[in-house]
């Protein structure tokens, strides 16, 4: 570079720095300015020899990120300094210690978090990318500002990606859609989320992007005229009320128009709400709610509202902190128009997300609590290690993009839950103990099954019982991360208790076979029954899968030294990996289909080769019977969308643990209290669940039919033996 060019570039850098201070969203004190100046000088020095792919000095990137943090998001001086320094430790000779000594612990912690994220290499493999995402979220433990600055960093990278290779552009854009846009949405940075989505679309679907953009530019003039007409009609009424307000038209993003076109299978011209009209009014915080409804009343005096499209996020703000009143009205020329009514404060929070809450911190302390609440929720999901990384990301995205529903407790308190939540999710959201003791639920006064999907406005009353406890089925009824993790850990504890009982039974049974109970015998038993851990063995004895007959077979094989010698030889390689591990493993060895979990003939699909334990579904082919595919099979989406009627639910189960239903027939002489004795006997047996019961009595002879759900045949046999002993019962048979 010539000297003249260097001077020119330095002037440009200085100009950018001045602009950074000028556009800062909050008032900067002299100390703040000193901190930012020091960070700026350190960054300039650190990056002095670096250039970006476009050829410009690297320092322009940290300044641009700091500008987004300062004006778009409105963070504090500490964050602006950290944004200026975000690449210093990773790319230059400066160490984290240097940063800590110069700028203090907080800035160093944020820079460290950002450096950790940069070291997570984006992976081709979705599950590794998902794992990276989980790790990235874990940096929230340090400071939420880490994620916010990272989002600003990604936004600037997306804005300046033109000079990159095409394949790199697509990769970065896809990752942005997968990770950063949902994060921005969750923190309430709606403007940034929209820009990230639109920029991603520009690289992932360039033709679609250009096409929609061109059409939007063409229709802008009509749109402006329409907004003027709309404004003219209501501004007189608003002026009469002496309100300070402004009316703006906000076009829908390219990404959301494309989403509508694909989802509803329509053309661009058929998308009716290509823009929203926003009425932003100025007032004190006490009058906000009153004025919002006053403006609502004025708008609906002129235009007919669509009653199903009213959204009141002022009385119940979204968990991102978003507040507004949304109405859809029939505007001029018979077109539906979305009108958003917000105060100046609500508008800032909508545009700048949680950071804007800090600005109102002194006036309204609760906003700070909202941020903590949100972080705690996120924390809970992160600490749930039960879920594998891909499920975690999908569930996290689901919780992000899913609309929220608001339900009431019996006392009238409001609870926010993700859409699709059930009474079980509600129970666990109130308190873990209530969730674990759930016996049933009443929604709006009516009894409903635990799988019932709640709707906004429902009043939910959980019926609890000391005897109730989670079953495997509960996992199918619970959708929130919190409920699922609590159910899983409760089931784990329950299994451990059964395993303890099983251990005592095993010691007794081995004694009768004259076999010593020691580590060697346990290892032999684990090998013999093809299990993995000692807990597996005790659990299966506890539930009766490994019964007397099987233990006798084991004793016989053991006493036959010759057979035993060869069996051990053959089985040596598959020695248990860690027999003392505190874990009960699933032995996925059976596929079942449909709600009834039937065993049917099937073939495994060659396109994705599912293995036991994979999430799968069945597809009924024309000539080949049922073909089983993995849920993430490349052909899954096409099969599910084109042939939904041929899809059959399927899952791998552990045959030793699966519950099954059986019908017991009873005959005998009728006497007073017989039915109560029978039901009492069944209720006393903890491992039996009664589903259906019918009794008929005719001339003092009675016949009964009971459908029970049991874990295995030995429990059923024990139950039938007990029923036979009841006075008056003659015959107990199984259908």
UniProtKB/TrEMBL annotation:
SMART domains: HDc, RelA_SpoT. InterPro entries: ACT_dom, HD/PDEase_dom, RelA/Spo_fam, RelA_SpoT, TGS, TGS_RelA/SpoT. Residues 403-464 form the TGS domain. It holds the Pfam family HD_4. Belongs to the relA/spoT family. In eubacteria ppGpp (guanosine 3'-diphosphate 5'-diphosphate) is a mediator of the stringent response that coordinates a variety of cellular activities in response to changes in nutritional abundance. This is RelA/SpoT family protein.
